[in-house]
Amino acid sequence: MSDRDPRMNMPTAVQIPYNIDWIFQKQRCPSRVWWLASQFVITAVGIFSKILLMLMNKTRVYNKERLVDMISKRPQDVPLLTVSNHYSCFDDPGIWGILPLRQACSTNRIRWSMAAHDICFTNKYHSMFFMFGKCIPVVRGSGVYQEAINLCIEKCAAGQWVHVFPEGKVNMEKQEIRLKWGVGRIIYESPKMPIILPMWHEGMDDVLPNVEPYVLQWRKKVTINIGQPMDLNDFVDDLKKRQVPEPTARKLITDKIQEEFRILRMETEKLHRERQQ
């Protein structure tokens, strides 16, 4: 969707103290210098995540090959959309420490991911770090018709990998909350249907607790479970053929992901409990 879409001009009560417009411009048309800086940041963060998650903590990954293969072996023009729960501020980049270094440390292969503007993009230096880390600033409370969602759709159109935390926040209470409909819009409006790969993890909030002093821990057990790819092609095609209103369509698509989350959560929690015994 063009950034000239009239819905982009809808009023919002959300305050944006630091101007983030320039970030979208640079991420839409990255220069060679941008790619070099991004490669440096991605490499440093990738190595750090792998050391912390795989060496300093006891991480077990189920069905890892599904994610690894989707990143490197899917057709070049087919986008990948991964979705997962969000229990800790270290979920991203931490969970990507499970990947081989050739993926975790490659700015060409690693995901694009939305990050809260009021946490990660509060000044120039923080913004540059997260921008080069391929994080897209999302303004929570501004709805689905905002630049972050637009840019995710554009990256899907280019066949790239986008990761979304559809809970829309760090779910510290670990409650089942209604997923945000932005993920439904990305899927519905992507010119090329992405491969949708759900994931669930347990224990990341032990590695980085959600309470002060927010210090990274070690020797904690982390369980990551990669689900089966979701095939929503026929479902989305049917919604479009029946001309289902777009708000309804994105809700129905998001509900499908929520159903898959319920199944994957129960499976992963069981696996994690068995490791604790």
Could you walk me through the main structural features you see in this protein, from its secondary elements to its overall organization?
This protein has 277 residues and is α/β, with parallel strands linked by helices. It has a seven-stranded mixed sheet, sandwiched between helices. The chain has twelve helices and seven strands. It has one domain: Glycerol-3-phosphate (1)-acyltransferase. The longest helix is centred in the last third of the chain and has 31 residues.
List its salient traits:
277 residues, alpha/beta, Glycerol-3-phosphate (1)-acyltransferase, globular
Overall number of structural domains = 1
Poorly predicted sequence stretches spanning 5 or more consecutive residues:
1-11
Kindly state the percentage of residues in helix: 40-55%
What do we call the CATH topology?
A: Glycerol-3-phosphate (1)-acyltransferase
C-alpha geometry: globular
Instruction: Quickly count the helices.
Output: 12
CATH architecture: 3-Layer(aba) Sandwich
Distance between the terminal alpha carbons, to the nearest Å?
A: 50 Å
Strand order of the biggest β-sheet: 1-7-6-2-5-3-4
Give the radius of gyration: 18 Å
| Largest sheet entry | 7 strands, mixed
The class by helix and strand makeup works out as: alpha/beta
Task: Provide the β-strand percentage band.
Answer: 5-15%
Q: Strand tally, please?
A: 7
